[in-house]
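User: Hi! I'm working on a homework problem where we have to compare a predicted structure to a textbook description. Could you give me the structure for the chain below?
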Amino acid sequence: MTVDGGGALYLTATDAPFCNVQKFDSDGSPILQIGTCGFPMDTFLSGPAGVAVDSTGDLYVANGNFGKVKKFDGNTGTFLGDINIGAYPWGLGVDSADNLYVSTLENQVQKFNSSGQLVTSWGTAGTGSGQFNSPRHLAIDADDNVYVADFGNNRVQKFSSDGEFLTAWGGINGPTGISTLGDKIFVSAGYGASVMVFGPSVDDDGDLVPNNADNCPITPNPGQGDYDGDGIGNACDTDFFDADGDQIPDGSDNCQLISNPDQADVDGDGAGNACDNDSDNDSIPDTSDNCRMISNQDQKDTDRDGLGDACDEDLDNDGYLNFQDQCPLVAAAGGSSNNGCPDSPEGLIMLLHGAVDTGGLRTSLGAKLEAAMNSRISFVKIHHLEAFINQVSAQRGKQISVEDANQMINYARRIVGTIVAADR
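Assistant: Happy to help. Predicted structure tokens:
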């Protein structure tokens, strides 16, 4: 329906034997009937829907089943012409310059000038901004903004007269009819079962966001969160399910039942850290893994402090971080002034005496190193044994072969040069 400048009301009647537009004066008295349910074709209305009246009093009728908009003289009912839409027209509206806007069930809005020539069109099928799902009626405000009842998306979208998307608000169950009056917008919702009013001073849900700016006008959502950007706030979006309340829809949430708004996923396996029992994807459950966030299937823990080498910043547990420690696998005594290395060769000797067990036969590395000291080999040169000591340390507590022990001794001999052959 629509109202002209003189206050006359126009209503469409879609069922036979009516198939017409009926015009009433402001007192409700019938004035005129326009259209027929059959021939002649000029007045044949089949599935009439939206109506609109321009500033001259001419009447436009969406003749749905024929894919046209018919134009009549609103005072006499004289047929003035057809505008081919090429789709099923539904809603009509006229702006201050007598441009005609047509919404179609094919998810588009078309704009025509007063001569019936197409000016522009916009819209595709979808849920995004500027997209539609079976739009119904539309309305034009005093500033020539266009409001479209986006029926299938349960929202109203607002556009400029050129089709630029301006805003949208949702939570409106099946909006169909829409009209404007002053700064207020009236929308029939619930398939016509109720009328909702939107305006700068109307706030139905009490969330301090006025209805005309609220993307959930009847469900409180002061933050106006809209994760999927469809103009319908998360609080009332039927396409938005968020079981853990972290504002990430379940369809995109890598932990659907445990809140994790950062969606962190260290191992990139698709399961967020918050719910991943193997955060580093090394096949070792977090409850048993000595490096939960860094893959280390061998679980090596040189200093036996419960923290795997892969993530241990102090491998010898001497208080010196690895990047500072000149002997990262040899523990220095507290207060060491030697950059994390033992302060005396005796520290190295003690390490070697207890490091290697060859089936009960102790190597004499300790004694050989003492001999090297007596030969006045510098302490700095002894520190060059660190690579060898690291190998020995890795075998601490394990049984190794005599051959492996001999290889270690030969390696030490090459470095120091004065250590004699190991005892057999």
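For your comparison, note the following. Residues 316 and 402 are 26 Å apart (CA to CA). The chain has three domains: 2-236, 277-312, 344-416. Good luck with the assignment!
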